[in-house]
Design a protein that fits this description.
The protein is of the alpha/beta class and about 375 residues long. It has 2 domains: about 230 residues, Type I PLP-dependent aspartate aminotransferase-like (Major domain) (Aspartate Aminotransferase, domain 2, 3-Layer(aba) Sandwich), CATH 3.40.640; about 120 residues, Alpha-Beta Complex (Aspartate Aminotransferase, domain 1), CATH 3.90.1150.10. Helices cover about 40% and strands about 15% of the residues. The strands form 3 sheets. It has a 7-stranded mixed sheet with strand order 1-9-8-5-4-2-3, sandwiched between helices. Strands 10-11-12 form a 3-stranded antiparallel sheet. Strands 6-7 form a two-stranded antiparallel sheet. Helix 5 links the parallel strand 2 and strand 3. The longest helix is centred in the last third of the chain and has 19 residues. It is globular, with a radius of gyration of 21 Å.
């Protein structure tokens, strides 16, 4: 490793400025084209991006929308669920996954995750299915696919819908037992993603999209996202919402889509560099790569197993090293979602909430930066021995 005691300039959790600088001429030209056209809502740039993303994902329909949370909400609305219907989701995830379920007056049923990849445990899903269960929302957390083959079989056996929360794993591929593969977000009945700036494919504001192979579901998603209006203007067939990806964001995403695989390769190289630096550090568990999925490393998330995770975060904060805890509290312990009659404590989720910490992960990381970050983590852990 290079000198790990000298801070290599300002560190970023996500370096959007550096990423922009590398493709600035293309981004600026795309934005100028939209401004000159004055077609800011809808229009050819949004349609072109949707078509290009369909080709990349090998999916029949991509329906852009305003953000990833809207994508999840619209997806559940399109399934025709009724208030009180149960939706199974992981307890270890961002609040948006449960938020949209509650907003629609559905019942969120939270299950535990695997300790290695942090994704939903299909065995735990099976235990929670009841006659009221209508859908499952797996989350492809931190850049790696949940185990979709057995989950889809379970859903088929019980007549359930599957909505993939793919906000963190766009570009990842899931490998089936027969050797075939599909892109994350294209396996369930509907896939949802976010284009928040820090995502692997991020715009310069808010944005999102839904993906499906089902023509009927696609029509429903488009209608709901457009105020419930179908093909005839000012005729509203269902209660909908107003959720649009604007043309400026679509233009940015269309440029960055061409770099998505290169961005994923850069993230994998960064993760491998971190892995090498942390090899043999007993207090840490490094990210696992599952055989059924690529890993596109939206986050590089360690587990700190000696009870000093919070102290490590404070130590890194004091040294100007960005880090984050995704997530410190299980969803079922959040005040907004805690069941009135008490909740079942899920052991893996509880443990992960005590142990996980995410280090800087982005396309512009340099070996010197990673050496410094890893060196400081190791220095802290050795200090207590």
């Amino acid at each position: 490793m290079t000198n790990q005691n000298i801070p290599p300039g300002k560190l970023h959790m996500v370096d959007l400025q550096g990423q922009y600088a590398a493709i600035r001429p293309e981004i600026d030209a795309a934005l100028a084209e939209v401004v000159q056209s004055a077609q800011f809502i809808g229009g050819p740039r949004v349609a072109a991006f949707a078509r290009h993303l369909e080709n990349y994902l090998n999916v029949r329909h991509v329906i852009p929308c305003a953000n990833g949370t809207d994508a999840l909400q619209i997806a559940l609305m399109a399934l025709g669920l009724e208030p009180g219907d149960e939706v199974i989701l992981p307890a270890f995830t961002y609040v948006a996954t449960a938020e949209v379920v509650a907003l629609l007056k559905l019942t969120p049923v939270m299950v535990d995750v695997h300790p290695d990849d942090f994704n939903i445990d299909v065995g735990e899903v099976r235990k929670k299915i009841t006659p009221r269960t209508r859908a499952i929302v797996p989350v492809h957390l931190f850049g790696q696919c949940a185990d979709m083959e057995p989950l889809m079989q379970l859903a088929k056996d019980h007549g359930l819908f599957v909505v993939e929360d793919n906000a963190q794993a766009i570009g990842a591929s899931y490998r089936y037992s027969d050797g075939t593969s599909k892109k994350a977000g294209t396996i369930g009945h509907i896939g949802c993603t976010s284009f928040f700036p820090s995502k692997n494919l991020g715009c310069y504001g808010d944005g999102g999209a839904m993906m499906t192979m089902d023509d009927t579901l696609a029509d429903g998603l488009r209608t709901i996202a457009n105020h419930g209006q179908g093909s005839v203007r000012y005729y509203h067939d269902v209660v909908g919402v107003n959720s649009r990806l604007d043309a400026l964001q679509a233009a940015i995403l269309d440029v960055k889509l061409n770099y998505l695989d290169r961005y994923a390769d850069a993230r994998r190289r960064a993760a491998a560099h971190y892995d090498s630096a942390f090899e043999g550090v007993d207090a840490l568990i490094r990210p696992v790569r599952n055989p059924h999925s690529d890993h596109v490393f939206h986050q590089y998330t360690l587990r700190v197993c000696d009870g000093r995770r919070d102290a490590l975060k404070e130590f890194l904060d004091q040294r100007g090293i960005p880090c984050a805890i995704y997530y410190p509290v299980p969803l079922y312990r959040q005040k907004a979602y805690a069941p009135k009659g008490g909740f079942e404590s899920l052991p893996v989720t509880e443990q992960l909430c005590r142990e996980v910490i995410s280090l800087p992960m982005h396309t512009e990381l340099t070996p010197a930066q990673m050496d410094y970050i890893a060196g400081q983590v190791i220095h802290f852990l050795n200090r207590g021995q």
